[in-house]
Amino acid sequence: MLVRIEHTTQYEYSQPLLTSTQYLRMTPLSGRTQAVETWNLSTPGASTFEWSDQYGNRCHTLTVNKPVSALKVKVSGLVRTRNTDGIVGLAPSELPTELYLRETMYTLCSPAICDFAEPFRKQAESNLIDALHAIMLKIADTVTYSPGDTHVHTTGAEALEQGSGVCQDHAHIFCAICRKLGIPARYVSGYLAADQEHEAHAASHAWAEAYVERLGWVSFDPTNRSSATEAHIRTAVGLDYSEASPIRGVRSGGGVETMHATVAFPGQAQMQSQSHSQ
After folding, report:
1. What is the pTM of this model?
2. CB 79 within 8 A of CB 86
3. Are both 98 and 230 inside the same structural domain?
4. How far apart are CA 91 and CA 88, in angstroms?
5. N or C: the chain end with fewer CB closer than 10 Å?
6. Residues lower than pLDDT 70 in the chain
7. Which pLDDT does position 196 carry in this prediction?
């Protein structure tokens, strides 16, 4: 499937923004599940420097060195996706899979996470793929998709305990449960380009991948109760949201920041948007 993506993030400030350094992970890479045909990053009034992180994500450091009242970040391009039944495989260069067993602040194994994970242990030992699908579906049944109930700092354990959250929370819970069971798992950020029954969408999407012997990385999207399809476009991976979020950084000045993000898939009659102030 050929997908055209236009993702614009606009920041407005109540006072002059003096300086800002942001780390962008908004550039997809070609691989087994997708081929990037064109991609462009635009940041008017700011400079960018391209680099790759330890996970192989293509990153950019955005720097603002003079006062501004607004900041715009836009990415756009064409990505041709493939249906691989959720199998991502292995990249030519991979970190040791044991790294993806590490707990993070977002994926701490709370008593609730441990209790959730334990019933799947025997199944995971006998049929890992079936167990992973069962975990994915149980998360979807237990944690209702409800935008606004959580925020970017909510942990997987907190979302599980309150019984609601968004795709970021589903991915964190999945990773935490897998790691408790000794299964390497990682967080994935990207886009979902087709209407799905259970996804109300924000400015971007998140899901998870688990490592399975002889298959490599296999994707699981609890929010949509399925493995990743040709509608999923991967932009970054990491241990959790903090390492794979599209935009993350620090600023000086600016007062109150208002953010508005839109994601459009021209030709598919679909627009997604998200706004917040802080």
Report:
1. 0.92
2. no
3. yes
4. 9
5. C
6. 194-203, 268-278
7. 42
Structure-token pair, residue 9: 């993030």
Residue 156 CA to residue 245 CA, distance in Å, equals 15
Element (H, E) at 176: helix 167-180
Whole-number Å distance between alpha carbons of 3 and 144: 29
Contacts of 141 (CB under 8 A, 6+ apart): none
CB 38 within 8 A of CB 259: no
CATH number at residue 59: 2.60.40.2250
If asked whether residues 44 and 110 sit together in one domain, one would say no
Shared domain check, 209 and 111: yes
170 Cβ contact partners less than 8 Å away, ≥ 6 residues apart = 139, 140, 143, 145, 159, 206, 207, 208, 221, 222, 223
- Structurally, how many domains does the chain consist of? 2
Q: Which residue has the tokens 């067993």?
A: 101
pLDDT for the residue numbered 195: 56
Tokens of 95: 């970190």
Tens digits of residue pLDDT in 211-244? 999 999 999 999 999 999 999 999 999 999 999 9
Which residues span the domain enclosing 196?
Answer: 87-244
Pairing of strands 58-64, 68-81: unpaired
Residue 278 CB neighbours (<10 A): 8
116 half-sphere exposure, CB direction, 13 A CA radius: 30
Q: Quick check: 275 and 258 in contact, CB under 8 A?
A: yes
Q: What is the pLDDT at residue 93? A: 87
**Same-domain pairing of 121 and 199:** yes
d(CA 242, CA 237): 10
Q: Which among 221, 154, 153 has a CA at the least distance from the CA of 192?
A: 221
**CA–CA distance, 228 with 71 (Å, rounded to integer):** 32
Separation between Cα atoms, residue 90 and residue 81, nearest integer Å: 17
Quote the CA–CA distance of 276 and 11 in Å, as a whole number. 10
